[in-house]
Structure formats: C-alpha cells, structure tokens
Design goal:
The protein is an alpha+beta fold and 130 residues long. It is built from 3 helices and 7 strands. The strands form 2 sheets. The protein has a 5-stranded antiparallel β-sheet. A two-stranded antiparallel ribbon has the order 2-3. A hairpin with a 2-residue loop joins strand 2 and strand 3.
Length: 130
Amino acid sequence: MQAGDIILVQSSQRTGIITYEEGEMLNHTSFNDYGDVIIYRPNGFSSATPIIHRAMHLVEKGEEMPGGKPAPHAGYITKGDNNQRPDQPGYEPVKPKWIIEDFDLLLVSSHSLYTFGHISMFLGVFQNPL
C-alpha cells in the first residue's frame, strides 16, 4: 500500500478473520503474507486514528502477550508488516468489536482508479449531480 491508494473494505462478519498462524497452516495469504489484515481502533478509542495491521494470532484472557504480560482480555495480537515487533504490549489485544472491518480485499492504486473511473463513466456507473 502506498500513500494515495484507496482501499475497498469487506465486512469481517462475511468472511471471518484468519490470523497469520492460521494462514500459515491453511496457505491463506493477503497482501503477500499469511493471514488477514484488519483495521482497528487502538484500545477501542473512537477518537483514535485507525490502524491497519495484520492479525498475527488470537490470545485468550490471561494468556501471555508479547512482552510477557498477561492479556487483560481475549483479542488479536497485531503487527504492521514493516514493523519488527507486534503492537502489543503498547496496546491491548484487539477486541473483535474494535475492528472497523477486515480486509482480505482489493487495493486500488491511483493508476487503477484512473482507469476504473473512465470505465465506470463510460458504463454510466457514476452520475454527476451537476
């Protein structure tokens, strides 16, 4: 993903979330690595900027998280593909209700959007309100 790309998001309730660990066993990949990428609000704060990271594995309440602390509740351990360490222990495990959407989805680059836009206009998909 690059700055300026548009990401189309698919509801996680329709697909379920496959973690890195599960993806490795099932040979399920998204964005060139195992498992799904999710969009979530850190610690569930609605005012926080959403984070787009890969779901690495699911922990249960009390299970050891990265850094050695017990998980305060069940949730996903996440990590950015370009990061060395998981987001936890800096954040709590991601509760499913904090996930905005799951995206085993489509990435549309600026170039593709340009092409898609012209095809859509040709087909009459977009209507100009003016």
